[in-house]
């Protein structure tokens, strides 16, 4: 057992969070559209005080799944 008494405790994960405004800029949509996606559950977010933070990877996953070929 390690000296601090923690056994098999994973280390902290590095997660980059974006503001709603940053997500809107990245997706080229309005902030209201981002809020709708968050409130509908389509885009996961964490509430920090009165604002939301969206994991950057969640934005990329959403865009990857939303992409379709018009072809």
What can you see in these coordinates?
The protein has 71 residues and is α+β, with helices and mostly antiparallel strands. It has one domain. The chain contains three helices and three strands, in the order E-H-H-E-E-H. It has helices spanning 20-27, 31-40, 56-66; strands spanning 17-19, 46-48, 51-55. It has a three-stranded antiparallel β-sheet with strand order 1-3-2. Strand 2 (46-48) and strand 3 (51-55) form a beta hairpin. Helix 1 (20-27) crosses helix 2 (31-40). The longest helix is centred in the last third of the chain and has 11 residues, at 56-66. This is DNA-binding protein. Pfam families: HTH_17. InterPro entries: DNA-bd_dom_put_sf, HTH_17, SinI_DNA-bd.
Helix content: 40-55%
Q: Per DSSP, what share of the residues sits in E-state strands of 2 or more residues?
A: 15-25%
The number of helical segments is: 3
Oligomer: single chain
Give the ordered list of helices and strands: EHHEEH
Spatial order of strands in the largest sheet: 1-3-2
Using the alpha-carbon principal axes, give the shape.
extended
Count of discrete structural domains: 1
Overall mean confidence score, pLDDT: 89
Number of strands: 3
Domain Helix-turn-helix: 17-65
Keywords: DNA-binding
GO molecular function: DNA binding
Organism: Saccharomonospora piscinae
């Amino acid at each position: 057992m390690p000296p601090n008494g923690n056994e098999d405790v994973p280390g902290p994960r590095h997660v980059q969070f974006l503001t709603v405004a940053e997500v809107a800029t990245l997706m080229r949509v309005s902030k209201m559209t981002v809020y709708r996606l968050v409130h509908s559950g389509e885009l996961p977010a964490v509430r920090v005080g009165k604002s939301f933070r969206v994991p950057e990877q969640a934005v990329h996953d959403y865009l990857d799944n939303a992409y379709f070929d018009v072809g």
